[in-house]
Backbone:
């Protein structure tokens, strides 16, 4: 993993409150997935490498399953409820 990716992952895991977790508020167009632009609107420091680390299927969007996996792996903060 690239150092930049690790830095983004660390920043997300340690410093950012419920990012994507509040998917409905981060999902600007309401399509049920989060694009890099939507994530960056909440977390401006997320770069393409950090987003790609979470986008397991490489389709350019984080779906509910990818968000859950990222949370379990500590890449995103856990949902508060």
Residues:
């Amino acid at each position: 993993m690239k150092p930049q990716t690790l830095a983004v992952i660390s920043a997300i895991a340690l410093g950012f409150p419920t990012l994507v977790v509040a998917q409905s508020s981060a999902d600007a167009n309401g399509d049920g997935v989060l694009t890099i632009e939507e994530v960056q609107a909440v977390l401006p420091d997320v770069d393409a490498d950090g987003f790609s680390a979470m986008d397991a299927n490489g389709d350019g969007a984080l779906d509910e399953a990818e968000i859950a996996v990222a949370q379990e792996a500590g890449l995103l903060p856990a949902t508060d409820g």
Q: What stands out?
A: The first strand starts at residue 34 and ends at 35. The beta strands are 34-35, 61-62. The radius of gyration is 11 Å. Confidence is low (pLDDT under 50) at residues 14-22.
